[in-house]
Amino acid sequence: MVTYIKSAKDPREYPAAKFLEIVFVGRSNVGKSSLINALFKTKVAKTSSTPGKTHLLNFFSWSDVDAYLVDVPGYGFARRPKTEREGWREMMEVFLQAQNRGQRLALLLIDVIREWQAEEEMLVDYLSWVHIPYVLVVTKIDRCRKDTLRKRMHFWQNCSFSSHPPLDLFFVSARTLEGCSTVYKYLITYARKIKYVQET
Q1: pTM of this prediction?
Q2: Which residues are CB-contacts of 17 (< 8 A; sequence separation ≥ 6)?
Q3: CATH superfamily membership of 2-199
């Protein structure tokens, strides 16, 4: 079961740490909130068709494994004022560098029709620097025709991720739920392994 806990901006507002935080990152409007709802068959995460609506770190408790899901503001949305974008970046850096927050796993979401760009490369470099592993989740696969989807899947399966490749790669549609059960099973297995290691 997943429940909304709180939204936060700085460490004083973070909820008490759990053993694992699963952080959903990606460009604005890539579908982070929609994926949370699809994975856990809920509508707990607020969604919007307008990019850049998530301004804070949104914490959700996943009671099945005693972990947090964290929905964070997206990047790459230039219409927001520069000062606001810089504030989001600072908030993210403080959060990702925060100590005593337990283990972290990032889900990096990217639209199936996009390319791997400088922003993604910078993000995975940063995740590596703060020792946060990530998995790549390619979203919105229902928007492609079958022949196009085959080409895009081949592209992502053979993409060069510099020196920081993902732990795994998934293709999903939050609308049709295709691929969501596979991601869910991966997350619950990952969480249980982390918890087992910490308890032994």
Answers
A1: 0.91
A2: 100, 101, 102
A3: P-loop containing nucleotide triphosphate hydrolases (3.40.50.300)
Q: Among residues 122, 129, 162, which one has the least CA distance to residue 25?
A: 122
- Chain centroid, CA 36 distance in Å: 9
Residue 33 makes CB contacts below 8 A (sequence gap 6+) with 45, 46, 47, 48, 54, 71
CA 134 to chain centre: 9
Neighbour count for residue 76 (Cβ, 10 Å): 16
The helix-helix angle for 180-199 and 32-39 (nearest 10°) equals 80
Alpha-carbon gap, residue 123 to 76, rounded angstroms: 12
CA torsion angle 113 83 98 134 (round to 10): 10
Per 3-state DSSP, the chain is made up of helix, strand and coil in percentages (nearest 5) of 35, 20, 40
Dihedral angle computed from the Cα positions of residues 13, 18, 20 and 21, in that order, rounded to the nearest 10 degrees:
-20
Q: Where are the alpha helices (DSSP H) in the chain?
A: 32-39, 82-97, 118-129, 146-157, 180-199
Q: pLDDT for 21-66, tens place per residue?
A: 999 999 988 999 999 999 999 999 987 655 445 679 999 999 999 8
* Residue ranges covered by each domain of the chain: 2-199
Residue 77's pLDDT is: 55
